[in-house]
Design a protein that fits this description.
elongated; alpha+beta; 6 strands; 2 domains; Pnp Oxidase, Chain A; about 220 residues; single chain; six-stranded antiparallel barrel
Length: about 220
């Protein structure tokens, strides 16, 4: 992935945040007939803080009837893509001429080594960890205890794996190449929009670029 210097993350924390906030990842490997991709939840194996993502472990699972599962092998290299907030920017937002449209976004590419897990307890542990992480971050406090027997009945169809992180690339394209007044206009535009992940993107811009939060009056003028 091409990452111009101004768009590269200078700290691991925002990279981890993108991964944890957007766990429905694109899991890509090379099969016999070329690249094969699946979209599936991928979570960290533990809640421990990571000073360096290299060496950390991710967990994922898919249906064993997925053709990609049959193409996986121990030691295989995989690419896992975590897509953060993103949004299109019309030149109208800039208020200057000449200008060109563009797209702000954040994305993380994780390269790692696959380790297939045995059916049974190991696969169930991945499912339980995934539920714990996702319910804790996005759910309503559901307790899985009464459904564990149901999980066990589903387990024969679950293909679980670990991924040891070998390398990480990330890109945070957040108008760093624009003057401050344009950055502020773009952040205000996204903050005032209800489309897609625009408001989350505005928050990411404020954090990364140090742009102060906008007031309701600012949004009315944007």
């Amino acid at each position: 992935m091409l990452v111009p210097g101004s768009f590269a993350a200078t700290d691991v924390a925002p990279v981890i945040d993108v991964m944890r906030s957007n766990p429905l990842a694109c899991f890509v490997v090379t099969g016999d007939d070329g690249p094969v991709a699946s979209h599936l939840p991928v979570v960290f194996a533990t809640d421990d803080a990571c000073d360096d993502l290299v060496g950390a472990t991710l967990l994922g699972h898919m249906n064993r009837t997925n053709p990609q599962w049959a193409s996986l092998a121990v030691g295989q290299q995989a690419l896992v893509i975590f897509q953060g907030p993103h949004g299109y920017i019309s030149p109208v937002v800039y208020g200057v001429v000449p200008a060109a449209p563009t797209w702000n976004f954040s994305v993380v590419h994780v390269h790692g080594t696959v380790r297939l897990l045995d059916p049974g307890k190991a696969a169930l542990a991945v499912v339980r960890r995934t539920v714990q992480v996702l319910e804790g971050r996005f759910g309503l406090g559901w307790d899985m205890t009464d459904s564990l027997a149901y999980f066990e009945r589903l387990e024969p169809g679950v293909g679980a794996f670990e991924l040891r992180i070998d390398a990480v690339e990330s890109m945070f394209k957040l108008s760093q190449d624009q003057p401050r007044e344009v950055q502020e206009k773009v952040a205000a535009w996204f903050e005032g929009s209800t489309a897609g992940t625009h408001r989350e993107l505005a928050g990411q811009m404020r954090t990364h670029l140090g742009i102060a939060a906008h007031t309701e009056a600012d949004l009315d003028d944007a």
